[in-house]
Structure formats: C-alpha cells, structure tokens
Amino acid sequence: MTINRPPMGWNTWNTFGPEINEQLVRETVDFIVSSGLTKAGYEYIIIDDGWSEMERDAEGRLVADHKKFPSGMKALGDYIHSKGLKFGMYSCCGTMTCGGYPGSYDHEFIDAETFASWGVDYLKYDFCYHTGTLAGKYFYRRIGAALANCGRDIVLAACSWGMEETQEWIKTTGSHTWRSTHDIQNSWASIKSITEQQIKMLPYGAHGCFNDMDMLIVGMGGNSFIDGFFETNGCTLHDHKTHFSIWSLFGSPLIIGCDIRNMPAEATDILTNKDVIAINQDPALCQPYRIALDRCPDDILVYARLLEGGDFAIGCFNMSEGDYRFIFGLDELGITATSGKTIVAKELWSGKDQPLRCDSFDLTIEPHGTRLFRCKVVDKK
Ligand code: GLA
C-alpha cells in the first residue's frame, strides 16, 4: 500500500508517557471530533508505549494491559473507527520496547496479525533493545514484510531516530514514514535542533515515505511526560507557531502530542490553520529547498517549496535571539527578471499580502519568529 500525504493525528506519548488508559483515549477521540481537529485533517489516534502487559499470552501474542484497557484493543479500535478516525499502535523491533514492555523481535508476523485483528491502521515501530549483531534495516524489513502479509493495510511508521543513516535504506522496508532525529523535548532548543538536523535530510522526504520530525509540542505547557513531569516553562505560542510552520513546510507528519482536552484556544488555532496545513498536505509533494543561503547565518532559514498548480510556499524562520532583516529576490524560485512574471505573497498567519520591493522580499522578523507565505505567480504589470 502507499500513502500520498503526511499522516496527521494525535499520539499519547509526549504528554502522558505510559500513564495511559482507554478512558483518556476515548475522551481524546471525542475532543478531536468536537474541537474541529478532525475537520482540519487529524485522523490517526496513536497509542504509544506502555499499553501492554509485561508478558505475552500462552500462544505468544501481545496482550493489552487489563487495568489500563479493560475493554481490550479491538473494542477501542472499534470506538475510534466509529468516529471516522483511524487506529494507531506502537511496538518495537527489539526484545523490549523503549519503556521495557515486550518488543516484537522474532514475533513480527504474529504481532502483525494481532494488530490486524484489532483493526489497527498505523504502527509506530521503535528501535530500542535490538541485537547489535544485525543492522537496523533488517528489523524494519522484517516488520515491513509481516505487515504487508497481515491482510490489512497498516501504515508503518519507522522510528529509528535517523540512526545508521536511516534515510539511505528506509524506502527498502515498506515504511511509510521514518523518524529522522532523536526525541523532541518540550523546549525551543529542541525545535531548533531538530530543524537544523533536517537540512541534510530534506532530499530523502516526501513521495510515500515521509520524514517524521517527531510529534508536535504545540499546546503543551510545562509539566508533561517529556519534561519528566517537572514544572517547566515549555515554549511560548510564538515558538509553537514557528514549530508548526516548519513541520508543515518540510512535509513532516503532523502528530499532536498535547492533552487536547485541555489545550488553549490559541493552540487549536495554530493546529487548525487551514492554509498552513494545505502546504503540509500539498499533493505535489515537492521537496523544500533553502534559498538566500549565501546571505544568511546558520540560524536564519529561508525555504521555498513548489506547490500543486504552480504556487510557491516560502517560509522565513528567525531561529536566532535577535531581530533579523530578511532580503531575498524571486530569481532563486526560478522567477527571473526576464520572465515577465512576479508573485503576490499572502502571509498565512496574518492573512495579509506582503508588498515586494523590486521583486524582492524585505522584512524584519523578531527572534523565534516566522513569516510563512503562499505565493501566486502573476504577470508583471
Ligand atoms: C522512543 C521514541 C519515542 C517514544 C518512546 C516510548 O524514545 O522515539 O517517540 O515512542 O520511545 O518509550
């Protein structure tokens, strides 16, 4: 099977870690529907690590934790499906998951069958506790083969953190998405570091095997699982806007990681911005590319991406701690002075048109700030 857009959904891990249960998941499902997130495109409800019993059953099958999920995973999957959503689960290529629960090593086919029998649509597959004598690619080929033979279409979301040059072999495994970095933390430093690590990964993304930059931290305050449940400042909404813009422009899966039952209205506004999501989901699946490189320091990023129908997306990201003046021309998009063309640029967070000066952008952006444009190519008057 193939998928033709980066998956969008919600995952339990960032906020709750292994402290999950069926009530939390059901409530979240209800909120996803009532808050407009479903309409915006979020569809996968993904249960991450910590869902199973510590032992397999007598037939060697994985078993859901009876206390956390007393109705069982089939019933939970049915509930998720009854709301028009899709069901995601988690396992790991090693003998144990990262949290120490049973992993799928040497049980790939039986686990794929179990997930299929529960109605699973998406499997996140982690990289902990595998034998060092076998290269990572073989573990993903095993589960890829098992899922392809399980009788159900299941998205394979590889999670090998970019290790062993994941980008070089991941498309041989049948995976549909692949994590390119270690885990996101609830901080601006983490957003910045993951973004910088993408620069060499971008050529490997899109087209049916999407580069997963990890779950979103939009809507998370302090005090979540990935903060170690400590009180922290987390990020500002301003940071979250930049984070969501980068993940969108770069074509990452958009997997929400906050407690959406309690997220601030501003976070919902960010996560449901239709114009920004349209760039993430753009059917042309073109690779973004860096422009204005010769004029910018490392922490000043300008990226462009050609969209279906000939529009362009342009993102200007000030990852630094001071104001920065961005000046760049259209020639780097292929719109040269002799083409007779120019662009009309709409900034997607403000909804305003950005005036150009001599076919160039000239804007000053505050620290951690973003301007994300959708540009139409028009005749020059
Ligand atoms: C790894 C993954 C995380 C999460 C945890 C669960 O660290 O990268 O996204 O799934 O395992 O233990």
In short:
With 381 residues, this protein is α/β, with parallel strands linked by helices. The protein folds into 2 domains: 8-280, TIM Barrel (Alpha-Beta Barrel), CATH 3.20.20; 289-379, Sandwich (Immunoglobulin-like).
Description:
The chain has 381 residues and is α/β, with parallel strands linked by helices. The chain has two domains: 8-280, TIM Barrel (Alpha-Beta Barrel); 289-379, Immunoglobulin-like (Sandwich), CATH 2.60.40. The chain has helices at residues 13-16, 22-34, 37-40, 73-82, 108-117, 136-148, 166-169, 188-198, 237-249, 265-271, 274-280, and strands spanning 8-11, 44-46, 86-92, 122-126, 155-158, 177-179, 210-212, 254-256, 289-290, 300-306, 312-318, 324-329, 341-347, 353-354, 360-365, 370-379. The strands form three sheets. An eight-stranded parallel beta sheet has the order 7-6-5-4-3-2-1-8. A six-stranded antiparallel beta sheet has the order 9-10-11-16-13-14, with helices on one face. Strands 12-15 form a two-stranded antiparallel sheet. Helix 5 links the parallel strand 3 and strand 4 (122-126). Helix 9 (237-249) packs parallel to helix 10 (265-271) and helix 9 (237-249) packs parallel to helix 11. The termini are far apart. The mean pLDDT is 96. The protein binds alpha-D-galactopyranose. Residues 13, 48-49, 97-99, 126, 159, 183 line the site of alpha-D-galactopyranose.
